[in-house]
Amino acid sequence: MEKKLRNIFRTTQGVDLFKDALAYKVRDEFRAFIALGFSVQEAEDMLINFFENAVGEECDRGVCYLALAVTEWNAGRLTERLKQKP
After folding, report:
1. How many CA atoms lie within 13 A of 64 on its CB side?
2. Region 44-58: what's the mean pLDDT?
3. For residues 14 and 42, what is the distance between their CA atoms, to the nearest angstrom?
4. Which of 49, 50, 62, 80 is 20 to 30 A off residue 56, Cα-Cα?
5. What contacts 68, CB < 8 A, 6 or more positions away?
6. Average confidence (pLDDT) over 77-81
7. Cβ–Cβ < 8 Å for 64, 51
8. How far apart are CA 60 and CA 49, in angstroms?
C-alpha cells in the first residue's frame, strides 16, 4: 500500500495524482455530476457511496478520497466532510 502511494506522488513536476486511473475516474465523474446539475453534496455522496462499496483495497479508497478532495478544492467547493476526513 505504501509503495503504491509513494509512486503516485513521485514525479519530477510535483504531485501527479491523476495519473492513477482510479483518481482520474473520480475527478471525471465528479465533474460530470456537476455538469448534469447535481449539487456538490449530491455528487460527493454518490461518489463516496460508490468507492466505499465497490473499491476493495483501503489504499484505493484513500486515492479516491484524495482525488475527490483535490477536485473539489480546485473547483473552490471543498466540503467540510472531506476537510474532516482522516
Report:
1. 23
2. 81
3. 31
4. 80
5. 26, 27, 30, 44, 47, 48, 82
6. 91
7. yes
8. 14
